[in-house]
Structure formats: C-alpha cells, structure tokens
Please model this.
Amino acid sequence: MGDAYAAEFGRFLTEYTIPETERVRSRDQELYDTLSPGQMFQGSVYGNDEDLRALADWLDENPFLFLGHLKEEGFGQVYLSVGHLKEKEIETETLARRFDVSCLSPVLLINDAGMPDTNPELFLEEIERLLKAPGRLRMAGRYMAVCKDDSPDPRWGTDGPVTRCLAKGSVLRLETEDGQPLDISPIRHAFMGERIRDGYGEIVAYTASECYYRRAQRLPAKKYDLPVAFNWRNIHSSAVLTEMVLREVLKRRIRSLAGTDRMDSSLQTQDSPPVPLELLRAMRARYAPSVSDQMLEQWYLQGLEEEESIVI
Model:
C-alpha cells in the first residue's frame, strides 16, 4: 500500500494512515506537493542519556522550526514537542530460523565498484555482516521495489544527484542455510548502508510467520490542537490595539479616496458634494465594522477639504 504508515503491524487488526497532501504554487509559479497543515507525526529518537536530555531541553525552548523547501515564503513551519523520555529496553536474544527484514526508509547501498546498487544479494550480504554470520543465510522470498531519490544533501546545501535506492516498504524473507536458529536481535531495529545520519537505511526485523491473516483499517491522519498560554488582559489589549490600527487604516483610505474625488471638476462646483456612502460602507466592512456612518461621512468630507490627497 503506497505511502501508508502503520504501527504494530503484527496484530490481527492493523491500523494505518496515509498522510494528507496538497499542491501549492511557489512565488516563481512552480508547483510543489506538500503535506497538508495540522497533521501530527510521531517517532522516536535513540541516543545516550546526556544527548537526549540536551535535545529535549532545546526543543522545549525552541518548539517552532521551519523544514523543507520554500521556507522563505512561509512554508514548512512545524511545532515539535517531546512526549516522554524512557530507557531503552534491554535487548534479549531473539532466535529465528526464518525471519523478515523490512525497510522503514530508503536504503542506499554501495557495491564494490563504488556505485549505488539495489541488488537483493547485496542487501543479504549487509544483513549477514550486521549479524556477523557470513554465508549462513539465503533468500526465501522477497517483496522489493526501487525508488529514485534526489533529495537535497543537507551537508552541501544543494540538490543531491538522482540515486537508485531500495524503496521503503521493501521486505526480504531470509532463512538459515543449516536450519539452525540465529539470533536476530542486532537487527530488530538497526540502520544499514549510506547516509544513515540523514535518515536512510532504517530497517526492522521480525520472526516470519508461515501463514497469517490480517485485517487493515484506515484511520484519518491525526491532527493536533496547539495549546497557547494566554490571559484576558493581554487579549483585550491586543484587541484594542488592533481596532485602533484598523480604524486608522480605514480613515486614511477614505481620505485618500476623497482626495481622488476632489480632482473631479463636477464636484468642485457643488456646495454639498454627494457622499458615496455605499462604497464607504463596503470599505468599513473590510477594516472596522464598528465605525458609524456619521464618522465615515466626516472622514470623507475632511478629505475633500484638504489641499493634497493622502498617499498610502
């Protein structure tokens, strides 16, 4: 299932979601596929105690970041929060004669010639190297796909070259050559290949089931409700200031309109020039609906009496 994400897929009922996307147009009229706003994503960061606590403290002080392209145009703002810190579970020996290895992110492998390679045999060799069991495994089945990756390289700050990778979601079923169980705990959650610091090469391993039945239920993407600390005094002060600014903007716009009308020679000969009240009301609805009709007329007539129009 393309672009579907699930957790605890070993359960009978597997719940999954597909992130919501939309297309936007940049300032230079280029179209981009983007994640829709409001969605919430969750993951885990592994590390030592000191580094994780430093990261958690930094995120508490800097919860807002900009990620991805078009940041200078206002796209990519995200809010990050730390759910909890916990100690990693003690790894225990996991023996298996047959097991599956799944790619949680694109896997970039380099062959002996120094070129990107998506050959399943190279993937198998990397798994044997991580398990320190060369020659002990063979392929029993596979569901693998290839993707062309051209994501930017953050270390160089430029678009990366188009590279062939094993696509996320690829699965390789392995079994031992001699039929003896092998400890797969080192790859229950691990990384392999190149650019693992950028998120590539994440894999997970689990004991294979010969026959199983699953049900899948699609859930909508989770949305977040950002709590913002406030007090009524600050809100009232901000509202008053905003209203004052909008009233001043409306006043300047009306007087500027009157300055333009003053150039009409037909109005100069009239003792009581007509007031375009319908137009003024439309302007009022956009900026400051609380302003009275009398105030609209007063600002307009003041603009007619000025010697020079006001330029905004």
